[in-house]
Design a protein that fits this description.
By secondary structure, the chain is an alpha/beta fold. The chain has two domains: 87 residues, no CATH class; 200 residues, 2-enoyl-CoA Hydratase, Chain A, domain 1 (Alpha-Beta Complex). Helices cover 32% and strands 18% of the residues. It has ten helices and 14 strands. Strands 3-4-5-6-9-10-14 form a seven-stranded mixed sheet. Strand 1 and strand 2 form a beta hairpin.
């Protein structure tokens, strides 16, 4: 009987050893190792560390200094006996040193990001319109201004799919309907203030309706290693004009005033870069947020989820706007209050009237 038990135990031990050989040892999920692993991931994957750290408000010289500084480094802020909640906030504070809107941290019952977004009081804009179209999609508000019926208005609040399962083609039908309804106007105010971004495919699809010529507008390189210049070959993005298509009635290439502000983020900034290649578009308002990378979801060694920016984005002249934003040709200041937003829009209407020859 003893011999049988001995030979029964041996295969189990061998099996466990084999699993450990193929899967590797369990990761060390002590607080110091969790923080170190997170710092390392950002060092290897985030494509804009040097740009983000150049304006660090806490005096850190670079991303290395954030963790390793002998007096203020985050490695000094963790210990083996700390709670998971305390560890979460140390990790979140460390990655928030980047002030990157695409960076956030999530744990059961906890979440923290570095971006606070103000919402747009769109109802005050509706009151300025001589009726507005009901598209069935809350992301669009459009119409003609009661004060200037020759000037059209389209507000795109987001480039995200409004609900799960929404097909890209449905978005196309919506923007086609909107553009067609404003065909008799002389100029257009295209408003992406407070637009928090979304799907690049949808962004380019909509931008095509306002392009008179096809133009390359953006380069994106993906981080491939720990060095700041370890980047892939660039992927080129193009805004494709549909205005020359035979019989197409869904493009608007009359004068356009494109409005942005500091809450125009991510895909809204791609949209801005795309339309700035068009001679009939005048960029007005305030500079954009300055967050251009796509956002990637990744898991930490202890199972928490974080988001990160793996791309370095430039215009076609290799100019980088990350952390800075795109400054308009025509700056119309606002203090981001509801009243100031309306005043800013009124100035944009006057600019549109002028560009239309009024």
């Amino acid at each position: 009987m003893k011999i049988k038990i001995k030979w029964l135990i041996l295969p189990i031990v061998l099996l466990l050893s084999a699993c450990q050989f193929f899967l590797g040892p369990e990761p060390d999920t002590s607080p110091p190792e969790v923080l170190k692993s997170l710092w390392t991931d950002f060092n290897n994957i985030h494509a804009n560390l040097d740009l983000r750290m150049s304006n660090n408000s806490n005096g850190y010289k670079n991303w290395y200094d954030v963790y390793h500084n002998e007096t203020t480094g985050y490695a000094l802020k963790v210990n083996f006996g700390m709670s998971e909640r305390d560890l979460f906030f140390v990790c979140a504070e460390m990655i928030n040193e980047l002030k990157d809107p695409h960076v956030a941290l999530f744990a059961p019952g906890l979440s923290l990001g570095s971006y606070s977004r103000r919402s747009f009081n769109i109802e005050s804009v509706r009151d300025m319109l001589n009726g507005h179209g009901n598209t069935g999609f809350a992301n669009f508000v459009f119409g003609k201004f009661s004060s200037d019926p020759d000037i059209g208005y389209i507000n795109i609040l987001s480039f995200e799919r409004e609900k799960a399962g929404t097909k890209d083609q449905e978005w196309g039908k919506v923007i086609d309907k909107i553009v067609n309804s404003l065909a008799d106007t002389k100029a257009l105010v295209l408003d992406v203030r407070y637009n928090g971004g979304g799907d690049v495919y949808i962004t380019e699809y909509i931008a095509a309706r306002f392009a008179s010529v096809s133009k390359d507008y953006l380069k994106a390189r993906v981080k491939t290693g720990p060095g700041k210049n370890d980047l892939s070959a660039p992927i080129i993005y193009t805004v494709k004009s549909i205005s020359k298509a035979s019989g197409n009635q869904y493009s608007y290439t009359k004068p356009i005033v494109l409005m942005t502000n500091e809450y125009s983020v991510s895909a809204a900034e791609w949209f801005t870069m795309a339309l700035r290649t068009q001679s009939h578009v005048t960029h007005a308002g305030e500079r954009t947020c300055g967050a251009f990378s796509s956002r990637k979801d990744r898991y930490m060694i202890n199972g928490w989820l974080y988001t990160i920016s793996p791309e370095r984005v430039t215009d076609m002249n290799d100019k980088i706007y990350e952390g800075i934003g795109i400054s308009p040709e025509c700056i119309i200041p606002s203090n981001s209050t509801d009243a100031a937003d309306i005043q800013q829009l009124e100035s944009a209407i006057k600019l549109a009237v002028k560009l239309a020859g009024g």
